[in-house]
Specification:
There is one protein chain. The chain is α/β, with parallel strands linked by helices. The chain contains nine helices and ten strands. The protein has a seven-stranded mixed β-sheet. Strands 8-9-10 form a three-stranded parallel β-sheet, sandwiched between helices. Pathway: Porphyrin-containing compound metabolism; protoporphyrin-IX biosynthesis; coproporphyrinogen-III from 5-aminolevulinate: step 3/4. This is Uroporphyrinogen-III synthase. Its EC number is 4.2.1.75.
Length: 243
């Protein structure tokens, strides 16, 4: 069930004024995921990213739109379900959001309602860490992780776009895989020494482990905090230029 098909999903890219995105693509699994959603009743289904939510919704519809109870990692992921809930007659119950939008906090706070054998389906990226299943298992949950998609970095970037990217004073990244892809792209170039604005602490920690400095991130992961971190990084860059 963990085998991936060649079914590619291209996500929407939102850009700031004057920015240029370097896209990656997502490969998702298909029928086996839908079968799992249809055939098995779980106390919780944990969704930890907008892309995981989109892939889940495809499987959920293919499974006949059963009633499900969802735990999401944060508001950004929850927003993906809003439109689906309008048309689904409340078959999707987004019942839990942790106090902080990280996998570790979700795993530590997810209610088990006194059920020692509480079951969780955790559909995830094949590249995701193990904080959630390990944290939940340590609390007595029965967790089934299903790798439902993976992300792959682009293999070639147009040279003109790459030159523009190297001139950027701030690179904005929303996942550890994104920062890994960026580091791999600039590994052979010594011309980039800018700052990194991360969507949250998990991505920022990955950036620091890769040796990057001038890493900015919000205390609570999310779009608005990410925007604030980008603005902070740009502000520091302008101050340094003035000096």
């Amino acid at each position: 069930m963990n085998e991936l098909t060649e079914n590619m999903r291209f996500g929407t890219v939102r850009t700031f004024k004057g920015s240029t995105p370097i896209k990656s693509y997502v490969i998702s699994c298909g029928d086996s995921y839908a079968f799992m959603v249809a055939a098995t009743s779980f106390d919780w289904i944990t969704i930890t990213s907008p892309e995981a939510a989109l892939v889940f919704l495809d499987a959920w519809r293919a499974a006949g739109s059963p009633c499900v109870k969802i735990a999401v990692v944060g508001a950004g992921t929850a927003s993906i379900f809003n439109e689906a809930r309008v048309s689904s007659k409340q078959l999707i119950d987004v019942a839990f959001v942790p106090s902080k939008a990280t996998g570790k906090v979700l795993a530590s706070e997810l209610p088990n309602h006194g059920n020692d054998g509480c079951t969780v389906l955790y559909p995830a990226s094949a590249k995701a860490g193990h904080d959630i299943e390990e944290g939940l298992s340590n609390r007595g949950f029965q967790v089934m992780r299903l790798n439902t998609y993976t992300t792959e970095a682009v293999q070639h970037v147009d040279q003109m776009i790459f030159e523009q990217a190297l001139s950027a004073s701030v690179v904005a990244v929303a996942s550890p895989s994104a920062i890994r892809a960026w580091v791999n792209l600039v590994a052979e170039s010594e011309r980039w020494g800018g700052s990194v604005a991360c969507i949250g602490e998990t991505t920022a920690s990955a950036a620091k482990r890769m040796g990057l400095r001038n890493v900015y991130y919000p205390s609570s992961p999310g779009i608005q905090g990410w925007v604030d971190s980008i603005i902070d990084a740009l502000g520091i860059h302008k101050q340094v230029q003035k000096v």
